[in-house]
Structures are given as structure tokens and as C-alpha cells.
Amino acid sequence: MMSYYIDTLCIISLLSCHFITSSFAGPVPNVVSGSQKLIPTQVSSRDSKVSLSSTVKGLRLRPPSSYSLKLESFSTLMKSTYTERYDSRPFRVGKYNWTLVVYPKGNKNDSGTGYISLYVAIDSSTLTSPRQVVPPDLRFYVFNKKEKKYFTIQDSDVWQFTINKTMWGFPRVLPLSTFSNLKNGYLYDMDQCEFGVDITIPPIFEKSELFSVAKSFPNKRFTWFIQGFSTLPSDYLSEEFIIGGISWNLRVFRNGFGAHEGKNLSLYLNLGPQELLKTKPYDKIYARAMLRVPNQGQSNYIVERPLDNWFSPQNIGWGYADFMPLSDLRDSSTGFVRNDMLVVQVEMEAISTTKYFPS
Ligand SMILES: *[C@@H]1O[C@H](CO)[C@@H](O)[C@H](O)[C@H]1NC(C)=O
Ligand SMILES: *[C@@H]1O[C@H](CO)[C@@H](O)[C@H](O)[C@H]1NC(C)=O
Ligand SMILES: *[C@@H]1O[C@H](CO)[C@@H](O)[C@H](O)[C@H]1NC(C)=O
Ligand SMILES: *[C@@H]1O[C@H](CO)[C@@H](O)[C@H](O)[C@H]1NC(C)=O
Fold it and tell me: What is the architecture, at CATH level 2, of domain 209-357?
């Protein structure tokens, strides 16, 4: 059956959005040697990013997940003329080796003078090919003893590590004046501090779903001519019909259902047996429809009531227990029942389908 899908809504994981934005960031040439020596020319981590990218800062209780680096003699490092940076030992995250790099006086070459600079460097020998791009999510940590929390800094963009760009991070994590002031809690117990990093290499989603709503169908109406209305079972189902690729049926309680018994005609639209056989517990189908009982008499009066509902294995049917007064049906002068026949119609206006990948 053909149908025309509009209003398509794609539900994907947020991770994929990171991957999409990351494609804006191009690599910038940069050479890092494997040794613990001074490394020339650390280019700005911000130079190749798009304007959408922004820095996100916060405070959190949870310690870093990938690596923690405690320094107990920070001021000694600060005072050392020849120490520009401290590199941690290599640690493994994913298939790669990384080091956490701290510039206690800031990375001059990345406009970090006067700030604490934090970076991670990938060991390029752990890249599997010279063309490989590694796009991790990075979050850097600085412990704040006063708050008993970690100050965190991350970028909304995803940075791409390549053979040509092996180090990424923030040249200006905290101003040295803020960091070094003992009142602020970053430097504590005389001369201690702690840095850390989360490196997460999220996989691209493998499961997804596509939700769409069709609003036009080759046959959008089903009309049910109920013969012998007065002798029907009190709970009566129509034959199954298919609209919008979904099987349905109508259910009528000719003498009313529940509290409306003896008062009102009850009328429902249900998912059909075929649909119920194949629906999974999490399936849901949105439908907008009009339920109608047309008058077969001279007047073209129609009782109609709208449906705008989600159908699921938990809610297989929706309708009205008080669709219309039974008195209107019994009164032969009204024309709703003629020759003991009641006509019931449903007109579907919108029906959703959800595709799951893999199904
Ligand atoms: C900064 O750049 C200069 C010149 O390129 C280089 O000599 C120096 O080693 C670099 N310093 C750092 C900390 O990368
Ligand atoms: C990566 O780091 C681990 C220790 O974390 C080390 O055993 C291993 O040799 C390193 N790999 C390379 C290629 O340097
Ligand atoms: C690294 O740089 C070289 C030379 O500039 C270039 O040919 C190569 O494509 C770059 N590789 C990556 C992964 O960007
Ligand atoms: C249901 O039946 C009662 C009693 O006949 C009537 O007063 C009421 O209007 C009916 N409800 C609807 C929605 O038709």
C-alpha cells in the first residue's frame, strides 16, 4: 500500500550529533615526539574550530574517569625556569596511549601565559594508520578542596586527534592568580593540587529508529454496515481492515459499555488482530481519526467524534463509552437505525509508523 510520509522525526543518539559537528574541525599540523622532553610548537587548540564551538565549565563530585595527576610540589615546578610542562606517564584509553600534560605557568605558544594549561596528547605510534582520526570526548578536571568538587572544563565540539595534531586541550583553564590563591581551594595543604581527565571514545550508534506520520492514504475510510443491529451480541467487532499499513477494527457495544450501559452507544477503534500479533511491547502507533455514525434518514446529520491517541499493546483501543445517546438510536424517527442497520464509519487522518534499525 502506498502512503506519503511527511513530518519525519529522526530519533538518534546525541553522540551522533557530536560526530556531525566534529567534521567542521580540521587538523592543524603539529609534531609531537614520543619523549618526555620539551615539545616545540604547540599550536592553539582553538585555532581550527568553528564559532559554534564553546567551552563548558562546571563543578562535579565525580572524580576523573581516565587519569588523575596529583602534584605535591606545585610551586617548585612554578619556580623552575626550565620546566614548562609536566607530562604524565602514558595511560591507555580505547586502543590508544595518552598522556596528560600540565603547563603550570601556561602554554606560551597557545596564548596560555598567566593561566594553567591542560592538554592530552595521543601517542601517535598507537594510531593504526597515518590517516586515522580519533575523535574523543574530553573533559579536564582541577580539584577544588574547598568545594570538595572538581572544576571541569570541556568543549562542546569534538576535537580530532590525527598524526598531524596529537595534542588538544585548553591553554586557559584557570588564571594563575585564581589558582594560586590558597583561599580558592585549588592549591591546598601548602602546595598540592590535582588534575585529571576523562577521555571517552564513544562508538557511533548502531541502533536507531525513524518515526514518521502519514497523512494521506489511498483509502482513508472504513464504513461498517451493521445489519441486524437489535440482535447483535452486546460486544461486537467489525472485520479487520487495513489503513496506513496498520490493521484495525471497530468495536461497538450496542447497549453501551460499563457505566454507560443502557444509556449510550459505545464505539472504539482498536488495533486489529494482525497488528496485535506483531506489535512488540514498546511499539506505539499514533493515530488521528474521526469516528462517525451517519444518519440514514433525510437529514444528513452525522454524529462524529475525534480520536487523537497513541495505540500500543497496553492501549489497544480508543473510543467513546458515551458516543451517542441510545435514545437517539431507538427513536426510529431519527434515522440512525434503518431496517435494523446501523452505519459506523472511521476516517483516518494521520497514522504513524516507526521503523527500527536493526529491526
Ligand atoms: C614554543 O615555540 C617556540 C618556537 O616555535 C619553541 O622554541 C618552544 O620550544 C615552544 N615552547 C613550548 C612550550 O612548546
Ligand atoms: C601503552 O601504554 C602501556 C602502559 O599503559 C604500555 O604497556 C604500552 O607499551 C604502551 N604502548 C605503546 C605503543 O607505547
Ligand atoms: C598530515 O599531514 C600531511 C602533510 O601535511 C598530509 O599529507 C596528511 O594528509 C595529513 N594527515 C592527516 C590525517 O591529516
Ligand atoms: C449518554 O446518555 C445520556 C442518557 O441518555 C445522555 O443524557 C447523554 O447526553 C449521553 N451522552 C452523550 C455524549 O451522548
Answer: Sandwich (2.60)
